[in-house]
């Protein structure tokens, strides 16, 4: 006997939709009801916020593929927390639901998603039937030939889960210590996310499956329509957009009506013409430091080099204001302020930071950069890439978006690629 779930959407304050499990067995003959299967996932711990946003796109694509067969697959959003870069002291930054950063109704208009706590309530407790730890093939690509494949294999790295006295697996489940897995298996996978679909459909009978190290699988079709649908659905939470907009108005003389960046909260109706956005009268800069400079990468400038470029861009584009988003440490920040005293930054009070968290502040920084008349970012930073996409959605001329700072001695400073939205 198995349980089937009837999904009922109830609008609470027009915001929250609840899925109500119906705990009795019914025979499925009509199309309105199918077995619910939950897909959970997690990412390699050292990865930052913006690569995680990228992995979400891959998982959403996999869920769409799985749903094509009729089963009611639902994506469970992995709570945010314990990220390496989120180092603000004395702030509780674990078990953060996605709704603190993104608009859930917007995500749900693309693919069915629920928060982890909702999953626990719906599925009968803090249990995950099957964890699949994704890994590469120990032997690498055989014959140097790339082929897409997936096979159950012995674990290559030390397993980050261990069995408890009751035979359940314990490990890191986003800070939910009561969560346990019933089974953990290592799976070698090579290819795009949807190569996992046949395995998940046929070989696994569990009703909740978690893919750990989900970044192992690639995009089904990078920058294709499905990629962009999911990316466009990742609308930032309203309170963060409002704070960013208020900051733009107050310090940067920037409003949507004067900048031609009017936003439609319903992403399915947002289709700005390329080049239609004007942007606020300021230069937007994403200056990535910390681990990007520790390795002495030659594609990342010195502060002096960056400021020289910033000044020349302000002059060229006749902008007298500059907004800088950066993860620079206190010492570098002091030097930067000496070199560029007019710079504008979003600096939350401790109380605001406690409310917004490091993730919220990063989003506000991205939102403000996304509305600048001209933007320049840092080489191969996913933080900068997400700003490019946001500007593409808003309808900026690509010339004002796909720019990056060059290293002081970099010979060929290749600029970022323009990825056009497919609607
Ligand atoms: N607020 C803020 N945080 C930043 C900025 N740049 C980097 N960070 C932090 O550092 C992390 C960098 O990791 P990630 O998002 O993976 O981007 P990447 O490492 O640059 O590709 C971000 O998630 C932020 O937490 C910035 O300009 N503003
Ligand atoms: C999945 O099941 C099929 C058919 O039983 C089998 O051939 C295949 O090896 C299985 N795949 C994995 C990864 O276990
Ligand atoms: C654990 O999962 C693997 C892969 O699906 C399966 O072969 C194995 O029988 C499962 N073990 C238990 C105890 O259920
Ligand atoms: C702000 O921008 C408007 C145009 O949108 C302009 O007329 C006005 O002079 C600007 N104000 C300041 C203080 O720069
Ligand atoms: Mg990173």
UniProtKB/TrEMBL annotation:
Q: Where, by residue number, does the polypeptide cross the bilayer?
A: 20-41
Q: What's a single GO BP term from this record?
A: fucose metabolic process
The family database entries (Pfam families) matched by this protein are listed as:
O-FucT
Keywords, A to Z, come to: Carbohydrate metabolism, Disulfide bond, Endoplasmic reticulum, Fucose metabolism, Glycoprotein, Glycosyltransferase, Golgi apparatus, Membrane, Signal, Transferase, Transmembrane, Transmembrane helix
User: What's the EC number here?
Assistant: 2.4.1.221
Q: In which pathway does it act?
A: Protein modification; protein glycosylation
Q: What is this protein called?
A: GDP-fucose protein O-fucosyltransferase 2
* Species this chain originates from: Myripristis murdjan
């Amino acid at each position: 006997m198995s349980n089937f779930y009837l999904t009922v959407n109830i609008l609470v304050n027009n915001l929250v939709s609840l899925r109500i499990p119906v705990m009795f067995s019914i025979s499925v003959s009509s199309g309105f009801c199918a077995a619910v299967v939950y897909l959970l996932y997690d990412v390699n711990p050292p990865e930052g916020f913006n690569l995680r946003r990228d992995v979400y796109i891959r998982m959403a694509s996999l869920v769409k593929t799985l749903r094509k067969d009729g089963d009611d697959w639902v994506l469970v959003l992995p709570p945010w927390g314990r990220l390496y870069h989120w180092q603000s002291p004395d702030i509780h930054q674990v078990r953060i639901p996605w709704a603190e950063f993104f608009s859930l109704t917007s995500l749900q208009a693309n693919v069915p998603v629920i928060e982890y706590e909702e999953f626990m309530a719906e599925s009968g407790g803090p249990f995950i039937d099957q964890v699949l730890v994704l890994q590469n093939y120990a032997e690498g690509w055989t014959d140097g030939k790339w082929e897409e494949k997936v096979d159950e294999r012995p674990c290559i790295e030390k397993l980050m889960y261990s069995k408890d006295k009751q035979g359940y697996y314990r490990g890191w489940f986003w800070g939910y210590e009561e969560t346990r897995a019933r089974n953990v298996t290592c799976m070698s996978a090579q290819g795009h996310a949807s190569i996992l679909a046949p395995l998940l459909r046929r070989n696994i009978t569990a009703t909740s499956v978690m893919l750990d190290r989900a970044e192992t699988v690639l995009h089904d079709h990078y920058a294709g329509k499905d990629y962009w649908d999911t990316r466009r659905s990742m609308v930032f939470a309203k309170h963060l957009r409002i704070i960013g907009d208020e900051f733009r108005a107050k310090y940067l003389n920037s409003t949507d009506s004067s900048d031609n960046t009017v936003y439609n909260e319903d992403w399915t109706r947002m289709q700005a013409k390329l080049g239609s956005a004007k942007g606020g009268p300021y230069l937007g800069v994403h200056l990535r430091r910390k681990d990007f400079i520790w390795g002495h990468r030659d594609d990342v400038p010195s502060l002096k080099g960056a400021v020289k470029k910033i000044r020349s861009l302000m002059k060229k584009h006749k902008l007298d204001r500059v907004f800088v988003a950066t993860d620079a440490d206190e010492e570098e920040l002091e030097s930067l302020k000496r070199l560029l005293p007019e710079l504008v930054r979003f600096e939350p009070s401790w109380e605001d930071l406690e409310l917004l968290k490091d993730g919220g502040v990063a989003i506000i920084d991205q939102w403000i950069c996304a509305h600048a008349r001209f933007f320049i970012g840092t080489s191969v930073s996913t933080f900068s890439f997400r700003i490019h996409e946001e500007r593409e959605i808003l309808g900026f001329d690509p010339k004002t978006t796909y720019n990056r700072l060059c290293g002081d001695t970099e010979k060929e400073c290749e600029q970022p690629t323009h990825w056009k939205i497919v609607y």
